[in-house]
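Why predict the complex rather than its parts? Because the way molecules touch one another can change local conformation, and only a joint prediction can capture that. The input here totals 673 residues.
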Amino acid sequence: MRKFLLFSALMAVVVPAGFARADSASAISGKIEALPSGEAIYRHICQSCHMPDGQGAVGAGAQIPALAHNPHLQAASYPATVILNGYGAMPWFSGLLNDKQVADVVNYIRTHFGNHYTDKLNPSEVALMRPHLTAEEQ
Amino acid sequence: MASPSNTHSQTRRQLLSRIGTLAGSVALYQAMTSMGHAMGTDFSGPPKLSGAKKGTSVLVLGAGLAGMLSAYELRKAGYDVKIIEFQTRSGGRNISLRGGDTVTELGGATQKVGFAPGNYINPGPWRIPYHHQGLLYYCREFGVQLEPFIELNHNSWLHSTGSFGGKAVRYRELASDFTGFTAELLAKAVDQHKLDDLVSADEVAHLKDAMQGWGALTPELTYTKGNLSSLRRGFEKPQGGGLNGAPIPSDLMNRSEIWKSGMWNWMAFHERLDMQTTMFQPVGGMDNIGKAFTRQVKDLLQLNCKVTAIHQDDHGVSVTYNDMQHGGVVRQAKADYCVCTIPLSILSQLDVQVSDGMKAAIGAVPYASSVKLGLEFKRRFWEEDDQIYGGISFTDQPISQISYPSHGIFSKGPAVLLGGYMFGPAAYDFAGMTPQERLEQGIKQGMAFHPQYRKEFLNGVSFAWSRVPGPWAAVPCGARRHAKRTIKRCAPLTRGWFWQASMRLTSAAGRKEPFSPRWMRLHVCTNEPWEQPDA
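Output of the joint prediction:
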């Protein structure tokens, strides 16, 4: 819990902005599949880094955290905050995912990959966590 | 050992530190600043560095273009330079994949590239705008042969799943009709006095003339089916010889559907400064740039070193690394200064001795995902069947685009095209697939343009930047606001990081801070050789 509080404090300072374009080339990006469920969101977005089995990966220097058996998932608000605000090299997804989708994927990762947290996160709770962006930050 | 200079104000001195150069050495500061000047798009010549104190050492972390160029210029200026690099190769994100190469991803998937000799794909940077004079200068200086890269091709395809019955249209058809209909509407609005409050009386006649000429309108200010429009968009049946040689004009597209389709985005794309002609590519593959840079600094270069910690004190910088060539044994390198080009995604996970604010800033830069597909086909059917010679076809499907090779045009035998180039959600999606699934999707979606795809396909390779195990991860995609501010303030501490277009725009806005605009230039410099060519 202490860790989470620290993290929240950091987030209060580190105001997330919208995606900036990586470069001109990224002005053109393809569309994504429909994302009707937590599993679909995991398959089409999260597993690109966290891997299909939620084990994450260790590269040369960078480390992608495992979601499997991850005690950080104990409080649903933790993964929700990371998804909405990004963390480290991980981008934020507040622009891409709506409240229901954030709740869906949080509930999915908290009940899969060896995690058994049965309390559900509601979209209305996600709405309260959603960062407020000014037009400049969009 | 250089000592902090008294010429710096207190505040400035607090900012200056040995990591990322600087503490005090005015000469080195000026050296790096000059390089910043040198590498911006306002490049006017290589930096003229001088004034190095004899025996002053600089350790460069990372042998991408930024690191190698820093080493090259600093050595020339008289510094004692050494570069250490994690990978077993130098060149950073300058990569080309050829037959026989192996791509191994995080997660373990391995692909063996099966391209025929001479064929390649550039999974990272691939094109260089003419105004990247810094990079072009060094290419010329270091003997990198360049050739034109074809960006815009009027005969390429545009495809939107929900528009025009899902049928691909030619770029020239869309561009002509978009321009023609726009010109017609504007010309008529002016002619009918509907814009009198916006357009002065003496402007009206000129504006009508301009619209008529620009849009290929008839004297009645109409954009309509006929020779006038078909001379732009192409004929139904082109002009030929003999009795039946008269051309048949082509039908126009539906006007309201053009606006609705959003396909004009792909016209606007080529109008960006970074995409304008003339563009270039290195002959034989983008990695020839990295190879040429390597030739200049080969004797300074130590590969296979995994940095774990960067510390500093009043006497210099101390970098701890595992020497992977010798079983990972822990070693330390010391120097008076350090130029760090390690990507932030890696740096944020290392033991780096910087201020808390700086640490937060380093950890606050997210990295984008990007995926490219290289597909090899038995023959150049896009040329032979479709008269497409280089350029890009766009689609709103996840693959987003197909780029045809600008080199080897008219040659026989197998050829490789860029079968998909994804950012954003589509990149996450593709990166999460197996290599086989990525190729299958690439082929399936590419059929929207080229029904020959399946029959002519030989082999392919995909490159997902978020799955690259090397220390560069993917591309920085922006920075949280706080990070931008901190990095700007601490810019002198942060030599040579790969930085972002968004950062550049902010810094280029020219805020009057002691260093940031020019220092940010240096970041851009490091970025430009790979990032901007990629654009």
